Amino acid sequence: MSAPSKLRAAILIISETASKDPTTDKGIAALQEVFTRIAGDRWDANETRIVPDNVHDIQRSIKGWCDGTDPINLIATSGGTGFAQKDVTPEAVTPLIHKHAPGLM
């Protein structure tokens, strides 16, 4: 019997600073550690990307991961959720959700 394949997660960091200098980002390593430590061998979280606070860049990343021939099972986002005018993650992601799951946000 073959081992079940791992679920695939992607990590999307939304940050003006980190999009210009990826060495400033601490989110990718922290989230990958969570997947490794808590999820064990059930998840592969190697797909990562850093984009600026821009609706089109955020949506392009998510759509690319979801609409491909081998879609991602889960996308974890970090950043762009403050109250500054440039923080647009909720506005970028909301129109892409087909079925809302209150309480998981």
From TrEMBL:
Pfam families: MoCF_biosynth. PANTHER family: MOLYBDENUM COFACTOR BIOSYNTHESIS, MOLYBDOPTERIN MOLYBDOTRANSFERASE. It comes from Friedmanniomyces endolithicus. Residues 10-103 form the MoaB/Mog domain. It comes from the Eukaryota. Coiled coil: none annotated. Keywords: Molybdenum cofactor biosynthesis. Pathway: Cofactor biosynthesis; molybdopterin biosynthesis. This is MoaB/Mog domain-containing protein. One of its GO terms (biological process) is Mo-molybdopterin cofactor biosynthetic process.
